[in-house]
Each structure stands twice: as structure tokens, then as C-alpha cells.
Design a protein that fits this description.
alpha+beta, Neuraminidase, 2 domains, 24 strands, single chain
Length: 710
């Protein structure tokens, strides 16, 4: 009995202890749940406040204003539905005209450097007005953002409220997307969806989405190498198939020649950082930092730290290539148990973002993806550093810091911090071989680039005028009094007159382009794009009066005869003279000019990609002057009638050619992996004045003068 009593007391005692332990565990669990609930509520309250104060204001502004860059995508979508020639999309003034026709009145724009199909997601909205289309796009952006947050919360252990709050705290980048109707929330959604699928083992779909990203914006390009390196063949196959399908569609819709023009003429220049001002400190890319520091351009970058073009070209090739190569070779070839694939994907996205040749403040929203992947399972100090990096990259820093490229250095530091653990496992011999290959490639690239560099107009010819800060000067028209040309002013295209050593600005109510002047220089004729139409206008220099010359709905590209007694322009692809007489000949006509005497015309006409130069006889009949490969445009006859200057578009560049009209002998006058265009003659018939975008942004040239000799 005593033993049984002892056992019963022991059992009762043990039961009490267990009950106490259970109560403690329940209490701690309850407290933990309460703290977790409190944190969730705090995060949701913070996210709600951020929505009210940080999301709704830019969304409201974007909802009621049509600003860049949405009109660029919208106009391109309208033009795609009209099957307009793709090559023309990359002509700044042509695209500006079409933007005005499409309903965007007072807004500068352009389609460079976008791919042929960047506008594809906007095409279903192209039947709406620009403002209505933007409102639909902003509504979709909200859905894309919500879907992105949901996917990130599924592939990480981070709460959706915290991710949303982080996205909203990067206010500058997020607000830019909503105010401007930008593309990068949609791009973030596609990249997040592709990573979500890859991490879930759905490689084919994940790779296909990366292929779409590559075709639309180019950010997916490094993933081709990443998937091949990792031997994820299904994902690689999905990516290649998506690229091929969209590429074939682009070829079917726009034609082979125009797609080739994009690859050789636009894409190549964009990859060198020459899609916008290549010296701008506000564009935080490796390419811009190197040019701003090591390359001199009299108008855009007159005071670099040093003028070392060879060093600049070498580093422009070496640094992005090294960042790409040292990222890929550091990653294990195959995934093993315990391998953090999410961290790898985050590093590749950061690398792709770092080596991109064009980046603006609103693109930083894309970094929400890699930052979120890295925050998962991160230590507290590392988490604080990641969040700080994201906020610094997504917020507006003082403009005084722009020349030091602070956000670029932050991104480089982030790339290095993520990669250091991978680099520790690299074999020194392998690393050395990779470094030697990068240096050899960059050296060969630099040698070839410098050889071409010395043949370009900036190294050979004299500038007409140095206008500090002028991003664009082209379409010169020369008289005995001086030069008139088109330029980009405050939110519109304007004319400038360089006469008597003085520069005059001529701004009008609309976009003023394609000026033409008689030899006397008393008047300026030009195309005025305003209120959805183009008209030919005349500006009298003496009394500063303005009058409309043409009565047609859309008259473009005027040309005045040397004696100021006849004007020709283009309407619906045909030449119209004066009050309405038309010239019969090949169509569509692209440019028209006058011979110095007897009212004969010279013009460019024919299909885009193979247009030729034609001239008229005294009887008004047309005959062909050129018959070579490429587009032949922008003809100009010398005042003595002996030479013809024109532009040939071939091999991805535009170059000026000269032709002896008596013998028919033709020779190329300009050279370089850049464009020289819009030639015109000085009154002496020996000096050629033209625009060139060499060492500048694609299509945004400045004016040069040169002796026109063989």
C-alpha cells in the first residue's frame, strides 16, 4: 500500500509539473502570437498610411496628366496598328510629329532606344485617347504591383504588408512610374513571375517569361547565359522559344530590313550608352560615369576630369563584361541540396541592372525583387543594409551629388556584397583565365574603336557653333546671312538662327522643324506641328511676322527655291508646289529640294529601305540619279549646280555622300559607327554643313562644316 501510495503521489506531482509547463508554453506561444499579430498590424497600418501619403498623390497626378514616357509607348502602339515603317520610329522629328497627330500636344518624346516590340503591351489601349489609355495602364499597374507583392510573399517568408511598405517607401521610383505611366512596374511583375516559376521548378514557363522580358526591354539578356551556365535546359529552351516567336512576329509585321536596322543601328548604339545624353551625371550607369569623367564633348561635357578617350572605351568594354563574367563563373554549375537559388537569382538581377547602359530614377523599382529575395532569412545587420540600399537607390538624392554618381556606387557595393561569398570559392587559375579573356577582348575592342574614332566628324571637321548644353542641332538651312537650324528647347522643337555672330532663338506655338531659307535669308520657311496637324509657315525676319503658306491638312518638309519665288513640300507622300500643283513620279516622297536654276527639283522617293534620289526635267518629268543599296534621302544641290549631297542609310548608320552631277561619280564623305545627315551647301558651293551625332546620343547631333572635296 505504501508503495502504491508513493506511486500515486509521484504521478500527481508529475502531472502538475507537466500542466505547469504546458501553461508556460501556451503563455509564451500566446505572447509570441500577440507580438506577431502586433507586428502584422503595425505593418499594415504603416502600409495603409504609405498608400494614402505616398501612392495616391502620384497616382492622382498620373491619372489626370499625360506626361513622358507613356505617350512614347502609346504613340508607338498607334503606329504599330497603322503598320508604319519601324525605321521611322527612330527618327526624332518624325516620331514627334506622329505623337502630336496621336493626340499628345505639348510633350517632347521619342522611341529611341526601345525595341521594336516594347510598345506591344500598350497596343490593346491604342484605340483609346491618350489620357484614357494611361488611366487603364495605371489601373493595370496597381494589379501588377499587388500580384508582385503576393508572389514575393509566397517565395519568401516576408509578410505582404512589409513588402508593400518597402515598395512604397521607395517613393521616388514608385511615384515616377505612376506619374509618368512608366513601364517598370510591369517589368518588375514579369521578372518576379519568372523567378517565382523558376523557384517552383516550372522552368519552361519561367524561361518563357524571361524571353518576353528580353524582347520587350532587354533586361533578360544576362539570363540567357545564366540558364546555360546552370544547365537549366528547359528554362533556356523556353526563353529561346519565346524570343524566337516574338522575333518572328516582329519580322512579319515590320519586315526584315527594319528589324536589321534596329539591331545594327539602334541596339548597337544603345548598348554603348548613346541612347540619351551619354555624359549626363543624372543617368547613373557605368557608361555615363566613364564618359562624364574621361571624354570631352564641347557642348555636353566641356570639362571632364581628363580627356582619355582610349581609356574610356577600354573601361566601357571591360567593366560591364567583367561584372557579367565574374558573376556567372562564381555560381555553381548545378544546384545542390541547401543551395540558395533565390540568392543567385537576386544577384543576377542586380548584375543585369548594374550593366544596363540606360537607367533612370524610376527603373529602381525593379530592385524590389532582388532586395526581397535577399531579405529572406537574412541577419538583422544585413537586412538593415539591404533596406538602406534599396531606399537610397529609390529615393531622390540631392542633385549636387549627381556628378559623383552616388547611386551607381551603391549598386556596385550591393553587387560586391552579395557576390563575395561566391567569389571565395573561385579557383585562382579559373579567375585568372577569365580576367585575361576580359582584358584581351577589351583591348581588341578599344583598338578597333579608336581606329574608327579618328575618322568621325568631331575629329576631322569644324563645328559651326558651340552652344553649351545644346542636346540637339540638325536640319541646317544656309543663306548669305547665316545658318538656321532646328533644336530642342523647353518642351518643344524650336529654330535657332546663327547670323552675324549672334544666336537667336525662334520659338512658336508648336514644334518648329525642317527649316528652309532662300539665298537672301530674308524669310524662314518651316514645318509647324501643332494641334494634331502640320502646316508650312513663313517667318519674316524683318518684321517678325508669321503666316501660313500651305492649306493642306498635313504638309511636311518644305523647301524654298533659292530666289524665294516657289515653294515645294510633301503631302501624303507626293510633292506639292505652291498652291497645289503636284509632281508625278515615284512615291512615297521623303524629301525635296531645288536646283539653283530653272525650277527643277531633286527628291528622295521609294519604299523605306531602298529609296533613291530622283530629279525632274524642265518639262516636269522625273529621272533617277542613284541606284545603289540602302536608303538615299535628304538631297541637296550645290548653288553652282555641279554637286549633289545626300544621305545614305546602310549598315545601321547614316552617312553623307557626294555626287558629281556631270560625271555621275559618287563618293562617301563621312565615316564612323555613328550618323551624319541633313547636308546642305554654303553659298560658295565648296562648304558643306551637316549634322552628326558622333560621340553624342543617337540621332541628337550637332552641326559641322567641311570642305566638300573628293
Amino acid at each position: 500500500m505504501a508503495e502504491g501510495t508513493l506511486n500515486q503521489d509521484s504521478v500527481l506531482s508529475g502531472t502538475g509539473i507537466l500542466a505547469c509547463v504546458d501553461l508556460r508554453e501556451i503563455f509564451h506561444s500566446f505572447c509570441g502570437s500577440l507580438r506577431s499579430m502586433t507586428r502584422r498590424w503595425v505593418l499594415w497600418i504603416g502600409a495603409a498610411a504609405a498608400i494614402v501619403f505616398l501612392l495616391i498623390p502620384p497616382l492622382r497626378w498620373g491619372w489626370t496628366h499625360v506626361e513622358t514616357d507613356f505617350p512614347n509607348y502609346y504613340t508607338a502602339a498607334v503606329l504599330l496598328r497603322q503598320r508604319a515603317p519601324l525605321r521611322n520610329f527612330y527618327d526624332w522629328t518624325w516620331f514627334q510629329r506622329q505623337m502630336n497627330y496621336a493626340g499628345t500636344e505639348r510633350q517632347l518624346g521619342g522611341y529611341i532606344p526601345h525595341s521594336p516590340l516594347t510598345m506591344l503591351p500598350i497596343v490593346p489601349l491604342a484605340g483609346l485617347s491618350p489620357q484614357s489609355a494611361k488611366q487603364v495602364w495605371l489601373s493595370l499597374d496597381l494589379i501588377f504591383l499587388a500580384a508582385t507583392i503576393w508572389m514575393l510573399s509566397r517565395i519568401t517568408r516576408l509578410p505582404a504588408a512589409g513588402l508593400l511598405l518597402l515598395a512604397l517607401l521607395g517613393h521616388y521610383a514608385l511615384a515616377g512610374n505612376f506619374e509618368l505611366g512608366q513601364y517598370y512596374i510591369f517589368l518588375l511583375f514579369l521578372l518576379t513571375a519568372s523567378c517565382f516559376l523558376l523557384l517552383k521548378g516550372r522552368d519552361w514557363m519561367g524561361g518563357s517569361l524571361l524571353g518576353i522580358v528580353f524582347v520587350l526591354k532587354g533586361y533578360g539578356a544576362p539570363f540567357l547565359l545564366y540558364l546555360a551556365w546552370k544547365r537549366r535546359w528547359r528554362a533556356l529552351a523556353g526563353m529561346i522559344v519565346a524570343i524566337s516567336v516574338l522575333g518572328l512576329f516582329s519580322i512579319f509585321w515590320f519586315g526584315w530590313q527594319d528589324n536589321l536596322y534596329y539591331v545594327t543601328g539602334v541596339f548597337a548604339r544603345a548598348m554603348a550608352g548613346e541612347s540619351v545624353d551619354p555624359y549626363a551625371p543624372g543617368m547613373p550607369t557605368i557608361y555615363h560615369m566613364l564618359r562624364h569623367t574621361l571624354s570631352m564633348e564641347p557642348e555636353l561635357n566641356p570639362n571632364p576630369l581628363a580627356e582619355l578617350p582610349a581609356v574610356c572605351f577600354f573601361l566601357q568594354a571591360a567593366l560591364p563584361l567583367a561584372l557579367l563574367v565574374f558573376c556567372l563563373i562564381a555560381l555553381p554549375r548545378r544546384d545542390s541540396p541547401g543551395e540558395n537559388v533565390a540568392r543567385e537569382l537576386a544577384w543576377v538581377v542586380i548584375m543585369a541592372f548594374l550593366i544596363t547602359p540606360s537607367r533612370a530614377f524610376y527603373t529602381s523599382i525593379v530592385l524590389l525583387l532582388p532586395i526581397s529575395l535577399l531579405l529572406d532569412r537574412a541577419r538583422r545587420a544585413w537586412s538593415i543594409g539591404l533596406i538602406a540600399a534599396y531606399l537610397l537607390l529609390s529615393l531622390s538624392l540631392p542633385q549636387a551629388l549627381n556628378p559623383f554618381f552616388p547611386t551607381l556606387w551603391i549598386l556596385i557595393a550591393l553587387y560586391a556584397a552579395v557576390g563575395i561569398d561566391y567569389w571565395r570559392n573561385l579557383r585562382p587559375a579559373f579567375l585568372t583565365i577569365a580576367l585575361v579573356c576580359v582584358l584581351l577582348f577589351s583591348t581588341v575592342f578599344t583598338m578597333r574603336r579608336m581606329k574608327i574614332y579618328y575618322r568621325e566628324p568631331p575629329q576631322k571637321f569644324e563645328r559651326v557653333h558651340i552652344d553649351p548644353g545644346a542636346i540637339y542641332s540638325a536640319s541646317p538651312a544656309v543663306s548669305r546671312k547665316g545658318v538656321v537650324y532646328e533644336t530642342i528647347g523647353q518642351g518643344r522643337y524650336e529654330l535657332k538662327a546663327w547670323t552675324g555672330g549672334q544666336l537667336r532663338n525662334l520659338a512658336f506655338d508648336g514644334h518648329a522643324v525642317h527649316p528652309t531659307v532662300p539665298l537672301s535669308g530674308d524669310s524662314i520657311y518651316f514645318e509647324l506641328i501643332a494641334r494634331g496637324h502640320s502646316q508650312i509657315m513663313r517667318y519674316r525676319m524683318a518684321d517678325k511676322s508669321l503666316e501660313q503658306v500651305s492649306s493642306d491638312a498635313n504638309s511636311t518638309r518644305p523647301s524654298i527655291s533659292p530666289n524665294d519665288d516657289a515653294i515645294a513640300f510633301i503631302v501624303s507622300g507626293r510633292i506639292v508646289i505652291g498652291a497645289g500643283a503636284t509632281i508625278q513620279g515615284p512615291i512615297p516622297v521623303h524629301d525635296v529640294a531645288w536646283f539653283p536654276k530653272d525650277h527643277r527639283l531633286v527628291y528622295s522617293a521609294g519604299p523605306i529601305g531602298s529609296s533613291q534620289i530622283y530629279a525632274t526635267t524642265a518639262a516636269g518629268e522625273s529621272f533617277q540619279l542613284t541606284n545603289d543599296a540602302g536608303d538615299h534621302i535628304e538631297p541637296a544641290v550645290s548653288p553652282n549646280g555641279l554637286k549633289l549631297a545626300y544621305t545614305v542609310v546602310l549598315g545601321g548608320t547614316r552617312q553623307i555622300w557626294l555626287r558629281d552631277l556631270a560625271t555621275g561619280k559618287a563618293w562617301r564623305f563621312t565615316d564612323g559607327n555613328c550618323n551624319s545627315y541633313t547636308p546642305t551647301w554654303a553659298p560658295d558651293s565648296e562648304t558643306l554643313i551637316f549634322a552628326s551625332d558622333c560621340e553624342r546620343a543617337l540621332g541628337l547631333g550637332t552641326l559641322f562644316r567641311a570642305r566638300a572635296s573628293n
